[in-house]
Amino acid sequence: MSRIALGAAAMIVAASTMSAAAADLSYGSHAPYTVNQPLNAYSWAGPYLGGNLGYAWGSVDNNPTNPSGVSGGVQAGYNWQSGPLVFGVEGDIQATDANDTFAPWKFSNPWFGTVRGRVGYALNNILFYGTGGLAFGELTGETFGLSESHTTAGWTGGVGAEFGFAPNWSAKVEYLYIDLSDSRFSITGVQNGYQFGLIRAGVNYHF
């Protein structure tokens, strides 16, 4: 009788062991997937394209005019990201109605553009950055029915902040100082250039 009891107990233990192993195998096949970074981390890496609208104000060298006005345009760029550090390049082209008239002189800046590097620090979906590089654009002078335009190059620098509000979308606010170098205008007889500040807001789509 004791042998029968021992045999039954052994069968129960074996069945329990097999059941536990099957349960472990079943759980293992449905184990949750884990990654090294948080699933909700925002990525700034890759190409992007967007538009912007802003306001520019400045002054013309060797002339009393202070052209100012609305500007708007498009920008495109590419970012690389290493942890919270973000590095990138960006180019933009802008149309603007910045102009001013003083006595017989009128100066305007019909368009400008920049090609810049960017370095920033990301707090998940918030990016703070500095930027700087090449600027170029057109300065037009008019007096007594005569008009003269010069396209010149210069430099730009500034700061900005960008906020990722969706997986592929971000909005930014940016300030740039832009210096378009002097060139000699026949209608004024002196060197004229344009330096101005620009504050603008924009939206980017990240591919």
Short descriptors:
207 residues; mainly beta; Porin; 2 domains; eight-stranded antiparallel β-barrel; 1 helix; disordered N terminus
Strand content: over 45%
Radius of gyration: 32 Å
Largest sheet: 8 strands, antiparallel, barrel
Task: Tell how many strands the DSSP assignment holds.
Answer: 8
Order of helices and strands: HEEEEEEEE
Shape: elongated
Number of helices: 1
Q: Which structural category fits the helices and strands?
A: mainly beta
Report the average pLDDT across residues: 87
Can you tell me the residue ranges where pLDDT is under 50 for at least 5 consecutive residues?
1-37
Could you provide a short overview of the structure?
By secondary structure, the chain is mostly beta strands.
Structure description:
The chain has 207 residues and is mainly β. Helix content is 14%, strand content 68%. It has one helix spanning 2-29, and strands at 46-60, 68-82, 85-102, 105-123, 126-143, 146-166, 169-185, 190-206. It is elongated. The N and C termini lie far apart (77 Å).
